[in-house]
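Q: Could you fold this chain for me?
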Amino acid sequence: MDKNKRTILSRVFALLVIGLLLSSNLPQPTGMARWLGADRAQPASLNGAYIGKVELDYAMPGEYSDPLPPPDPGGEPLPDLGEIGLGLQLTQSESGVEGYVGLEHTLVFTTEHTVRGTAFGPMVTGSFDGTNFSLVSERVSLVSGGKNLMRQFQLIGGLAEGEEKRLVGEYRETLWGYGSQPLTIVGRFTLDWYAPVATDFLYLPLVDRK
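A: Sure. Below is the predicted structure, expressed as structure tokens.
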């Protein structure tokens, strides 16, 4: 990605974070472009392209892995943080899952990897037991608004009840560098399986997670 395009995307990301901190609405996600064909046969595992959205609920100090308390139900009404688009390309080997963020379906990630000429966002790794799964992205760095930032997200969820082509669960993303302590954004994701992905295209050696 050339310098001018990365600068533009970094500014988009900065606007997203500023909007969260100021409790304003987030930019809407891009349109759902098609990936790798239209055959929607049932996947046997987490192999393929998944596209959908994340509905952002609230933000609070802390890291994504912390046991963050939910907002006080008797407190001030939560601001509408809006939603972001999200797409993933995933491959599974036994219970291990790896893949990348697809840049066609999001405004808030930039190129971190190029696979056979195709640009992707952060790498994700995790596991799937046939019902429940967890994925964690790599931690990536960027410069935005003159600040050196880092970001990392986590998805924890499973198959939607009665809808085996749909993944649902909790999204958490932590931002480091905007203030004296990390800020974590919590939301709910819905991702629909869209098409198979050739395993030799996105194959990555799975890490032994003991």
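A (continued): The domain at 3-202 is CATH 2.40.128.120 (Lipocalin).
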